[in-house]
Amino acid sequence: MTTAGDIMHTGAECVTEQQTLADAARIMKERDVGALPICGENQKLLGILTDRDIVLKCVAEGLDPSTVSAGELAQGRPMVVEADEDVEQVLRVMEQHLVRRLPVINHPDHKLVGMISEADIARGLPQERVAEFVTTICAE
User: Fold this and answer.
1) Which residue in 28, 29, 63 sits closest to 49, CA to CA?
2) Are strands 35-39 and 15-16 parallel, antiparallel or unpaired?
3) Strand stretches in 9-111, DSSP E
4) What residue ranges do the domains of the chain occupy?
5) Per-residue confidence band for 140, with pLDDT thresholds at 50, 70 and 90
6) Range list of β-strands (E), the chain
7) Segment 61-103, tens digit of pLDDT
8) Cα–Cα distance, 97 to 90 (Å, whole number)
9) Whole-prediction pTM
10) Partners of 96 in the β-ladder
11) Fold of the domain spanning 4-138
12) Looking at residue 69, what DSSP letter applies?
């Protein structure tokens, strides 16, 4: 059985809820990623911040990314999976909620251990399943 831990990329770095969107954008550029988890106290996962969020919810609204905090964009409860979950369950969660990135936590302390992106899925799964996943995610 292939698990979330098998296909995730490790070393996911959180941006704190107090850091600015400009800080987050610099981290994204340095790490060559399009999303960062937003973490609060005790590394509690508060949300996911994407490069698209920065553009649409800040820049396009005429706000200054050097003054808007990541926490201001953290909305709702982020979807997560545990590292030992079967990859088919991971795909079901992503397809059902139409998310392209998913934080991976460990059990039992629920600490962030990695992220799964579309690229991770493409590298870690059979081509037919990747095509099915992409079709589902892009259909909406």
Assistant:
1) 28
2) parallel
3) 9-10, 15-16, 35-39, 45-50, 81-82, 101-105
4) 4-138
5) low
6) 9-10, 15-16, 35-39, 45-50, 81-82, 101-105, 112-117
7) 999 999 999 999 887 778 899 999 999 999 999 999 888 899 9
8) 11
9) 0.82
10) none
11) CBS-domain (3.10.580)
12) B
